[in-house]
Structures are given as structure tokens and as C-alpha cells.
Known about the structure:
This protein is α+β, with helices and mostly antiparallel strands and about 140 residues long. About 30% of the residues lie in helices and about 35% in strands. The strands form two sheets. It has a six-stranded antiparallel beta sheet, with helices on one face. Strands 5-6-7-8 form a four-stranded antiparallel beta sheet, with no helix packed on it. A hairpin with a 4-residue loop joins strand 5 and strand 6. The longest helix is centred in the N-terminal third of the chain and has 24 residues. The protein starts with a helix and ends with a strand. FE2/S2 (inorganic) cluster binds next to loops.
Amino acid sequence: xxxxxxxxxxxxxxxxxxxxxxxxxxxxxxxxxxxxxxxxxxxxxxxxxxxxxxxxxxxxxxxxxxxxxxxxxxxxxxxxxxxxxxxxxxxxxxxxxxxxxxxxxxxxxxxxxxxxxxxxxxxxxxxxxxxxxxxxxxxxx
Length: 141
Ligand code: FES
């Protein structure tokens, strides 16, 4: 292999290996993922201001699906659940005073850990990890 052929071979190899990285770095999908994703799979579902306004943050179309995040009275601890009642699917609401999720359809009640406190529901609400970073509320499915 002469010098010119070697340089051409190295140049084509460099271009072939760099091009996918350059395209991915400029992709709008990558930029969107960075704006809603945090390390460890946490995704933004709303702002702290939204959470503080009503002591709860409901996002039916978040990146992790429908999620209800609440601040418990025990300080800054967050509780995040799928708000669909496990009895028949009605959306549960957060009762600040009693610190539990209550279903308006048939009266099931769930604790901050999603466990059933009162039937007719027999299965717990699906729970998620939640945290605050800066002004964002993040949930990990
Ligand atoms: S749908 Fe929630 S208790 Fe029946």
C-alpha cells in the first residue's frame, strides 16, 4: 500500500466512524430526550411551582404515562403514583388533610405508598420514584 492509498483508507475510515456520531449529536430527538430525561431514567413531569400550588401535580400525558405526584406532610418527601384506581380505573385524588389517595367512584383509599387502606380495590396503586432537581419534578418509572 502506497502512502496515498493509506491516507485515503484512513480518511474514509475516520469519516465512516465519525458521521453517525455527528448526525446523532445534531438530531432533534436527542435534544428532546435531554430536556425531559435525567440521569438514572428520571423524567420531568412538571415543575415545583405546579406541585406547590395545589400540593399535588397531575400529569396525564407525562413521559412515564399518567402520574400523580404529591408532597406528604412529613416534609419534603414525595409520593408518585399512577392515578388510575385498581378497582375499575377511576382517577384517584389526593386528600391533603388525611394524607391518602381516595377514589371518588366507590370509595377505595390508598396510602402514600400506594397500598390499599380501604376497598373495594384489592390491588395497590402503581408507585414511582420521584425527586426534585432545580425547578423540575422528576419521576422514574
Ligand atoms: S373505581 Fe375506584 S373504587 Fe371503584
